[in-house]
Amino acid sequence: xxxxxxxxxxxxxxxxxxxxxxxxxxxxxxxxxxxxxxxxxxxxxxxxxxxxxxxxxxxxxxxxxxxxxxxxxxxxxxxxxxxxxxxxxxxxxxxxxxxxxxxxxxxxxxxxxxxxxxxxxxxxxxxxxxxxxxxxxxxxxxxxxxxxxxxxxxxxxxxxxxxxxxxxxxxxxxxxxxxxxxxxxxxxxxxxxxxxxxxxxxxxxxxxxxxxxxxxxxxxxxxxxxxxxxxxxxxxxxxxxxxxxxxxxxxxxxxxxxxxxxxxxxxxxxxxxxxxxxxxxxxxxxxxxxxxxxxxxxxxxxxxxxxxxxxxxxxxxxxxxxxxxxxxxxxxxxxxxxxxxxxxxxxxxxxxxxxxxxxxxxxxxxxxxxxxx
Length: 373
Prior knowledge:
Layout: H1 2-27, E1 43-49, H2 56-64, E2 73-80, H3 86-92, E3 96-100, H4 108-119, E4 126-129, E5 134-136, H5 140-149, E6 154-161, H6 168-189, E7 201-204, H7 205-210, H8 220-230, E8 235-245, H9 251-261, H10 271-276, H11 279-298, H12 305-328, H13 334-354, H14 369-372
Parallel strand pairs: 1-2, 1-4, 2-3, 6-8
Antiparallel strand pairs: 4-7, 5-8, 6-7
Helix pairs in contact: 1-6, 1-11, 1-12, 6-9, 6-12, 6-13, 9-13, 11-12
């Protein structure tokens, strides 16, 4: 009886997590949105940047080339503690630049607060936060405009990894971003609250005035998300509004980035949801469930069909990852990357579990692919 209870204690959460991914992925199939013929929303695109001279040009070009009236689109870059030519490049492209220097208060949260304090007095209709290594799809502004005009106070774009190679780090990130987008779309379809993603976030001015930015931790997006959640502020996930983001190229950079991101697991009250959406934790729990189930079946302590149960979970989970992998496509050297994925996932699990015993407190910028090359 004890063995049966133990097996069920592991199977129940594994089943719940599997169905969580399957159901939201199914519901998150892309839907179209009616775009008003006349744009009305005056946007400020706020871009925090720290030594981004190698990436900021493409980011600015994607915004400048977007399908939206230039009169309703203003770009402001916060050159935060930069020691390179980021500010000069921004000026060359005709965008505004705010140079900030503070060796003690470092990180994206402080740069955003500095930027919001500067742009809000000019009373834009909305502010879009975009990372300095991202590119927006041309119709993103029109999609944001449609929802903001309809009264949605906060919108979140789909964040898609643009560099699935040449290392397994980028491939793993690309698969993970596809799954994250589909889960967020599924939540949105049910009227549930998707999370903010740190980039591609759009806020109506009224929200930023009502809830001044005070998120300065390593996962500033999760902190501000929690602030809005407590106040019951609605967020819409817009699957057709796409931001291409750069993933870490090397696994060492991926692990460093995830050490910073793991702080979000412990922010606010939605801890259970964030743990379920931590794919390394879910995969590790399923693997441990397999060990428990197979051991108890071999010892004839539980029914043999328990093996079929955990096998079904595995097949469904594999199907989700296979589906996401097909959407990513096969980059060069895909075979080597696929073989390396189990090792990457295992390392990510240890990085995640490390957050229970050691919290990261220092902000480290993730290296860009151009720097690695």
